[in-house]
Amino acid sequence: MALDPLALRRWRPNEVRVLEAGPQGVLALADGIPVALAAYGPQTVRLRIGSPQGRDYGILASPRPFAFSSVAVQGGGVRARVGNLQVDLDLEAPRLSLVWEGREVLRSSTDGHISGGLRVPFLARGEGVWSVAFALNVGEPVYGLGEKFGPLNRRGQLVTCWNEDALGVNAERSYKNVPFLWSPGGWGLFAHTTARSHHGVGYPQWSHRSYILVVEDEGLDLFLMAGSPGEILQAYADLTGRAAPVPRWSLGVWWSRCYYRTAEESLEVARELRKRRIPGDVLVLDGRAWLEVETRCTLEWDRTRYPDPAAFVAEVRSLGYRLCLWEYPYVSIYSSLFPELARKGFFLRDAQGHPYVYRWDPEPFGELLTPLPPSGILDLTQEEVVRWWQERHRTLFALGVEVMKTDFGEQVPEDAFAANGDSGKHLHNAYPLLYNRAVWEATPERLVFARSAYAGSHRYPVVWGGDPQADWDGLAASLRGGLSWGLSGGPYYAHDIGGFYGKPDGELYVRWVQAATFFSHMRFHGTSPREPWFFGEGVERVVRAWLGLRMRLIPYLEASLHRERHRGLPLVKALPLVFPDDPWARAFDEVFIVGEDLLVAPVVRPGGEVEIYLPVGRWYDLWTGDAYEGPYLLRQTCPLERIPVFAREGAVLPIGCFASRAEEVALDGVLLVGEGALGPHDGTHVLGNVDRGFTLDLLLFLGEEGSTRGPSS
User: Crossing angle of helices 506-516/537-567, nearest 10°?
Assistant: First the structure.
């Protein structure tokens, strides 16, 4: 469609009839169009207008309507209260106001026309499309909308929530879209739809003073929330569910390459990592590594390279690794199973009822990657297809495979049809949720490593950030993508260390490792080798030390993840989530908080120079022990062995022993930060205090020999 919300017809009903009004909500007809208002928690209301098509597909986990404490109706206007939230909805005007704790946090569009009235109406509609517009305050930032690689503040951006194979991290299109956004001003909005949605957030070509949402559907289904950013993310999790826990071994280091060409090549890498005492928990075989490309993907080993899969898996496990295998939910027309699956109706269909054959654009593959075969798309709306797909996986898990890399999932064309009657218009965005849920449910330890995602996908961890370019911009964009995913309710994230395509130099490679050390999951991957010995002895030494630090941080990361996922919060947080009232914090898109107590400022430019913003509070440099009183801005030039890492005054950081595998990490003791830090009362060993000389150097370069027992403080 030619996207112009100002060309839509302003919706101002001539007749409004309130049919029901009470604690359970309000139901009205406006020119015959149904309108419903209900509470879904002490800080959430749901507004439905029209008749949205499509299905929920399990996006909403277990939402339960809440009772309004009071509802008053006057003409076509409604005032409803729940907890500290008040919503005023006037269907005759129409307009809306959201009041939280006595303060208006959101109101409908105020963008007026010189002739009188509104230039941008609150509600408008066209054929198969609705729009809704809200006013933005001067300078008001807005965050969310899934994994996006540009500036975290969406103000001024036009964002389309439509999952795509982004072929990189260099533009607005992305693999993980979530039509959920929020403002530190105290409001959040979740558009409950699987249709394509467009979000003009102070987008100047539409209105620099308005947030305009355009949904390509026959109605609107909006959840409006109020509170602090943390409370809004928790309210979103109340609607869409909380992320599942992950096994400890998944917090270790994943090794991958695009791709290991033979079984012996992958085993050689696995042995070399152990020989060089470089940590590693998971070995990943990418798509071309274990499958025959022309006939994939029914999860059958390429027997020309793997004549005895069971023996290969046993060898990997004997080296102390978990095995991860690549997949996608498409079956080549050259597969021997394709005719049978087509006959059973296991694929999405075209308008004539024939299996929809997806033909890949050959342009992105070039000489680098193998072109993909024309393929049928598994219809995962059918329970029988899901059961069949899960059984194929269970055969692999019975061999000892631990987890699947669930790649792709973005390829559902709008003119494809599912057995339930939905077209790609509504199935496209939901498909990654169905795909990853099916595999996650079949996996013994409940884990996937997924590229595509939508609202609700965060319940089925974990995701990684697609295919970044191997340069400094690719590193910075990958960090923003992960932080953006966290601002949209996703607690877990990983990215391709070193970048996916291109060859990083040693400096970039090290800086990527250092930044990735603090994310929930950590994977090396790319189209050229990403093992550290390919970058020289000096780089290998630094990377080995940082991976050792990763192992030692696992108790802190694990405890933080347990706490934050229950709150609906990410492990790694952009500064505006933690310091929403600090305008300076909004300017530092690559600086982040890990858990509650660590602040990390990755180096994202060559030469080691970095600008660090420390928000309010007392912060200790974990390299020097120096204390800074925030807010404070400083610049450092970091040697290759370091990036800036700070800890809050009073933090008590659990530190593990060095180990080659995450499962082997035992608690070594706690690191105290500042005079306000109180040691534990349970007998846990105190390694030392940062302000008394126990710094990261001890953990980083001395910790490889085992525990680091410094003088207690």
Answer: 30
In whole angstroms, what is the distance from residue 641 CA to residue 543 CA?
Answer: 9
Q: Does one domain contain both 522 and 634?
A: no
pLDDT band at 367; cut points 50, 70, 90 = low
Whether residues 596 and 497 fall in one domain: no
**What 8-state DSSP symbol labels residue 469?**
B
Three-class SS of 2-31: CCCHHHCEECCCCCEEEEEEECCEEEEEEC
The DSSP string of 629-668 is: EEEEEEEEE--TT---EEEETT-EEEEEPP-SSGGG--EE
Tokens at residue 469, please? 């370019």
Q: Which residue has the tokens 């966290």?
A: 486
Q: Which domain holds residue 257?
A: 248-327+384-411+424-564
- Are 602 and 523 found together in one domain? no
Residue 62 is predicted with a pLDDT of: 78
Cα–Cα distances in Å, from 609 out to 521, 606, 621, 629, 695?
26, 7, 16, 21, 21
pLDDT tens per residue, range 554-580? 999 999 999 999 999 999 999 999 999
Block residue for tokens 């959201």:
98
Question: Catalytic site residue 165?
Answer: no
Q: Clarify whether 410 is annotated catalytic.
A: yes
Q: What is the pLDDT of residues 235-249, one digit of tens each?
A: 999 999 999 999 999
What is the CA angle 135-140-146, rounded to 5? 90
Is the predicted pLDDT of residue 700 greater than 90, yes or no?
no
Rounded to whole angstroms, the Cα distance separating 289 from 261 reads 5
Contacts for 535 with CB less than 8 Å, ≥ 6 apart? 505, 506, 509, 510, 543
Determine contact, residues 100/227, Cβ cutoff 8 Å.
yes
Identify the active-site residue in 216, 300, 315, 467: 467
Q: Give me 167's structure tokens.
A: 């072929």
Buried b (16+ CB within 10 A) or exposed e, 304-323: ebbeebeebbebbbeebbbb
Annotated active-site residue in 221, 231, 281, 410: 410
CB 228 within 8 A of CB 580: yes
Report the number of secondary-structure helices (H) and strands (E) in the chain.
13, 38
Encoding tokens for residue 19?
A: 């049919």
Catalytic residue from among 379, 407, 496, 691? 407
Name the pairing type of β-strands 187-191 and 219-226. antiparallel
End-to-end CA distance of the chain: 66
Cα separation of 202 and 137, whole Å?
Answer: 10
Q: How far apart are CA 409 and CA 407, in angstroms?
A: 7
Q: Among 286, 283, 284, 276, which Cα is nearest to 532's?
A: 276
Residue 711 lies in a domain: no
pTM for the whole structure: 0.97
Domain annotation covers residue 490: yes
Distance CA 519, CA 485 (A): 12
Q: Please confirm whether the linkage preceding 52 is cis (ω < 30° from 0).
A: no
Residues shown for the chain: 713
| The pLDDT of residue 703 is above 80 | no
**Do 540 and 576 belong together in one domain?**
no
Contacting residues for 476 by C-beta, under 8 A, at least 6 apart: 589, 590, 604
pLDDT in tens, 501-516: 999 999 999 999 999 9
Under 8 Å CB-to-CB from 152, ≥6 apart: which residues? Answer: 143, 480, 483, 484, 487, 574, 576, 586, 589
Q: Whole-angstrom Cα distance, residue 105 to residue 34?
A: 26
For residue 209, the domain's CATH number is 2.60.40.1760
